[in-house]
Amino acid sequence: MTLTEVIDDHVLARYRALADAESAAFDELEHAYEDGDRSHFELDLGAWLKAIGDKTSFLRQLGVETAV
């Protein structure tokens, strides 16, 4: 099965939710950085990295691999 065969409304909705979660986590991280709030920065960094991991894991489950 190719990637084009597995992309459907459910996949797009799930990816959009994961992308939105990553964006929201980054926004929080950015605010903590700008405010100089080190303790919140550390927490927000963890949340952002988790969001990236969740999105990456979902893409791998679909068979998407990226060259880094």
Low-confidence stretches: none
Helix content: over 70%
Beta-strand content: under 5%
Structural class: mainly alpha
Q: Give the averaged pLDDT, no decimals.
A: 93
Report on the architecture of this protein.
This protein is mostly helical and 68 residues long. It has one domain. The chain is 82% helix and 0% strand. The protein is built from three helices and no strands. Helix 2 runs antiparallel to helix 3. The longest helix has 27 residues. The model has no long low-confidence stretch (mean pLDDT 93).
Give me the secondary-structure topology:
Blueprint: H1 3-6, H2 9-35, H3 38-62
Quickly describe the structure.
The protein has helices spanning 3-6, 9-35, 38-62.
Give the key terms.
3 helices, mainly alpha, single chain, 0% strand, 68 residues, elongated
